[in-house]
Amino acid sequence: MSEERPSLRRAVVALQHRDFSLFYLSAMVAGIGSQLANTANILQIYELTGSALQLGLTGLARAIPTIALSLVGGVVADRVDRRKFIMIMQTFNGCIALALFGLTALELTQVWHIYLAVFLNAASSALASPARSALVPNLVPRHHLMNALALNSTTWQASNVFGPALGGLSTAIFGLAVTYLWDGLAITLTVIALGLMRVGPIAARPRAGAWRSIVEGLAFVKQRSIILVLLVMDSGVVFFGQYKALMPILVALLATGVVLDGGDSREFVRLWTGLLISAPAIGALIGATGVMSLGDVRYKGRYVYGAILAYSVLLFLLVVSPRLQETLLAGGVATGVAVGVSLALAWGASCLLGFSDSVQMLSRNTIIQSITPDELRGRVSAFQSTLTNGVPHLGQASNGAIASILGFPTAIMIGAICCAILVTTLFSSNKEVRSRDVGFVPEPEPEPKPAVGAAS
After folding, report:
1. Domain of 36: which CATH number?
2. Which of the residue ranges 67-76, 207-216, 445-454 has the most confident prediction, judged by mean pLDDT?
3. How many separate domains does the chain show?
4. Where do the DSSP E strands lie in 176-335?
5. pTM for this one?
6. Is 439 part of a structural domain of the chain?
7. Is residue 446 part of a domain?
8. Among candidates 384, 393, 390, 389, which has minimal Cα distance to 365?
9. I need a surface site. Which of 66, 123, 282, 436 has the fewest CB within 10 A?
10. What would the pLDDT profile of 169-184 be if each residue is shown by its tens digit?
């Protein structure tokens, strides 16, 4: 028992710092609100159109501002008060949530309203995300950075557990309008928590022009090629393996048994879409907890590669669930059993996808943050946000278009194969990503205690 206690303390050591705890709380609440709104967005699009392509286009609405503005957000993050800037962007998001609440409550919502709201939310997030990422190292000592990043990821993953599940439940019970209202209330609490924070000292603000600042950040990324390799590996995952926005289609396929029994599938699709979107976050929380308990591990690049390869394999398991249900029903298995087994398989595969994604993300982020100097961290984080936040939405649009032609299972299987080929090629061709000590920061030695009886 005594051996476990240090490990448990180590897993949450960054929370002993007051300002990081407030940041952690604000990120948790904001993430849950955002996931409530995202779940309502895709359900509303699906109910208005029933189209895989239209669902995919929500990704394009997110991708355009993310790619266009993330680098700008990096320049801003290195020039302004990061905390206050995040508060302003959060307030803007709150106004969007209230607008969607009003339109939906009055039954005036059209598809373009949702696309516009998604676009504006993505623009705000693209500008604020580099500031949020760059703020974490200023809230904890450097040797607690990996723990802080892991804990910070648990806020996002926990919100991905509770947000979509609560979103599906809320839309099924209270409707879409009230779900948007919850998002507005969550953002209000987030702004309050950020307002109570005190941020430690950061490097001097850059005096160069905005364009020169961007070039300096990109030059550093080029110089440290491992950053680009890691980000391209992650981009391969989120582009080829993007599936969450298409979950209503998967659930509609799995609702066959419900329809055969004469039931109403709409509430079934709403509820299970939320549950399946939240499932990866449960696995991600387990993965993040494991990483935190391990401490600052070596061979981080190998963790990245292994986790991404596992992700590619797990995508196949996810898309087997509709075929499994068809096989069970054709074999005379009771409808309820066939539906339950296929849903259990889809849910389990989703959990494992989240686990593998969490391991690769934490290892990747720790490497990048550890080798980046503070005065460049905002711009490097911005370049990272451009890829890791923009590319997934392009993948969503791409997979939505492919699924509308070839079907959901075929689109996801093609993506899984492409992802595995890409990351294997990159891992094999880059020596630094395979090295033992990349991104490793040793804990500082404790200061020696003065000898007893020494002269004062």
Report:
1. 1.20.1250.20
2. 67-76
3. 1
4. none
5. 0.62
6. no
7. no
8. 384
9. 436
10. 888 888 888 889 888 8
